[in-house]
Amino acid sequence: MPRSFTQLTMDERRIVSQMLQAKARLAQIASVLGRHRSTVHREIRRNWWHDKEVPQADGYWHVTAQTLYEQRRRSYRKLHQHPQLCHVVIDRLKAGWSPEQIAGRLKREPDAQHRLCHETIYRYVYSEDGQSQALARHLPERRRKRKPRYARRPRSLVFPDFMAIRNRPAQINDRGQFGHWEGDLMIFRKEYGQANIATLVERKSRYTVLFRNNDRQSKPIMGRLINELSALPHSARQSITFDRGFEFVSWRDLEAGMGTKAWFCDPQAPWQKGSVENMNKRVRRYLPRDTDLLSLPQQSVRSICERLNTTPRKCLDYRTPTEVFREQLVEIVSLPE
């Protein structure tokens, strides 16, 4: 069922103002109005009065809030109020101009009686009047419905739900099976460019692979990762767990390139790949955030990697990751086909 929304009335704004002065919480105000808490929050944020000359007058006042709302409403309906301006806008849309180009050109034309924001044009295009004239088909990106402003691209399509970490098999979770890795990127200070370090950790042996990338583009990173691991037997590179960073959107290259499955942490939960997060802290001892990676010899990265892999670990009964990794590889090679 489609969601409907109506603006707050003058009476509702009066209630909001009175309850704010009484120090009521947003949830209480929303309950009294029968509105969602987010609606009340947006109303206060949009119509909060800021007075530079008299800071004591700052606040939410229902009369002022209604005035601000009506001013915005008038600007949204400018094309309805001025038919000649609307005719000019429609002609330029049909000529292939974008709303931003139309608005920008009107500001430069000395004889233009009105000015517009490109957002006003978009609102008109997707209004009932604009849809009845099929104006959206003249836009550079022809959409029947408008995408929400500032909306992020839905990542559920990039990182499918069936590949979420909660669906990862138990033998991977309990580290009982060899050949399952975790991957991450270590980012450094912006003034040194986009260079970064990719970290790969095998979950059972804690064996670590480090390599440098000159940027954060996903395809080159995945290509380099495939080069690093493809020499291993398939049983030693069965899966890799990532977070949902844009650096890993080309995960399909793993399956196509070497048959390695990808798993993904839940949104905003990189701690779920704890092995590589722990290893990143260890690597930071040698590569702090202010390291200029582009001036760092590749041999230095290999030396750090070797030091980490030859250091005894308590979780491995004080064996080194290299020793455990080699033992597991020997077992794989010795297994009958």
Automatic annotation (TrEMBL):
InterPro entries: Integrase_cat-core (IPR001584), IS30-like_HTH (IPR025246), RNaseH-like_sf (IPR012337), RNaseH_sf (IPR036397), Transposase-Integrase (IPR051917), Transposase_IS30-like (IPR053392). One of its GO terms (molecular function) is nucleic acid binding. GO terms for cellular component: cytosol. GO terms for biological process: DNA integration; DNA recombination; transposition. The keyword Endoplasmic reticulum does not apply. Residues 165-329 form the Integrase catalytic domain. It holds the Pfam family HTH_38. Keywords: DNA recombination. This is IS30 family transposase.
